[in-house]
Amino acid sequence: MKQLTWKLILPLTVISFGTITKWWYTLPVDAPDTLYSGFPFPFVGDGWHTSMSLQIFVIELIADILIYFFIWFAIVFCINKYLIKIKTYKIVTIGLWTISGIIIIGASYIASFPEHIFHFKRPYDMEIMETGYKFLWQHTERPDYYKYHPEKKE
Q: Which pTM was predicted?
């Protein structure tokens, strides 16, 4: 199982974490409406101090990565133990690690921008208005704020 962890589970964790996510349209306390991303916990959202910034919440990020890892571990463990023995071929391992490496390099590059704000834990509460799932390459339309607060429409 140790070999499967390095050759299959870790790259699948990175690939799925980098491509499949959930978006959250929220109203944080004393802040404008904001779109967050992350599954099962929102760990990244729009920054409020400049248009190209992000807020990144470290505890939620780590929890999300661990949950993805344990889901893949359980799937691979059950398949390997109860259905068929999984054999990892070198070409598959190289392909998975190449895709994972590209995702890690891209995420590291984006995270290195100086305008991003890192919080250990999200420092405010928020009201969740709408959620949905998306792939990395899909664009999420921002829901209409006045749909949820028609009394504020002028």
A: 0.82
Are 13 and 72 contacting, i.e. CB atoms less than 8 angstroms apart? yes
Q: Rounded to whole angstroms, how far apart are CA atoms 114 and 2? A: 37
Nearest by Cα to 21 from 45, 35, 40, 47? 40
Query: 49 is written with which tokens?
Result: 């101090």
Query: What does residue 123 show for φ and ψ, rounded to 5 degrees?
Result: -90, 15
CB 53, CB 47: distance < 8 Å: yes
Torsion of CA 60, 64, 66, 69, to 10 degrees: -170
Side-chain-side CA neighbours of 47 within 13 Å: the count stands at 16
- Residue 92: pLDDT band (50, 70, 90) is confident
Q: Where are the beta strands (DSSP E) in 42-112?
A: 44-46, 54-57
Task: Please identify which residue in the block is written with the tokens 């209409």.
Answer: 144
**Stretch 52-64: mean pLDDT:** 90
Locate the domains of the chain by residue range. 2-133
